[in-house]
Write a structure and sequence with these properties.
129 residues, six-stranded mixed sheet
Length: 129
C-alpha cells in the first residue's frame, strides 16, 4: 500500500504530464519543509495557472486539508490580478479515479455552507485547461 505522500506525488506527476500533453508549460514546485503555495504552475499564452493537487481516498474533500500557506498565497495571487488559482482533485470513486477541480474562489464560497465538497460538485478536470 502506497503512503499518502507517495499517492500525492503520483498525482502531481500525472497532472504535470497531462497539462504538458495539452500544450502547457508545466512546472512542479519542489517540496520544502515549510511547504509551498501550490504544487504546479502551468502557463500558456501569457496566462499562468497555479494548481494544488489533492489526492482523495474517496469521494469527498474536507476543506480543512487546505494549508494556511496555500490560502494566503492564493488570496494574494487573486488580489494582484491572477484569477487562475485551482485545486485539482483525484477522487477514488469505487475502483476508478475521477479527476476534478474547483477554483479557490469557488472553495471560499462553498466553505460558508459546508466543511467538505464531494466530487459531483466539482468540475471535470479538462475544463480547467
Amino acid at each position: 500500500m502506497k503512503t499518502n505522500k507517495a499517492l500525492g506525488n503520483e498525482f502531481e506527476n500525472w497532472l504535470c504530464e497531462y497539462g504538458y500533453n495539452l500544450g502547457f508549460f508545466a512546472h512542479k514546485l519542489t517540496q520544502s519543509t515549510s511547504g509551498q503555495p501550490c504544487d504546479i504552475i502551468f502557463a500558456r499564452n501569457n496566462i499562468p495557472i497555479f494548481v494544488d493537487a489533492k489526492n482523495c481516498m474517496g469521494v469527498r474533500f474536507p476543506f480543512s486539508r487546505i494549508e494556511s500557506n496555500q490560502r494566503n498565497a492564493f488570496t494574494i495571487l487573486n488580489s494582484c490580478g491572477c484569477p487562475h488559482t485551482y485545486f485539482a482533485f483525484r477522487f477514488l470513486v469505487g475502483e476508478e479515479y475521477d479527476y476534478r477541480f474547483l477554483s479557490f474562489k469557488e472553495i471560499k464560497k462553498l466553505e460558508k455552507e459546508m466543511t467538505a465538497v464531494s466530487y459531483n460538485l466539482c468540475h471535470p478536470l479538462e475544463e480547467m485547461f
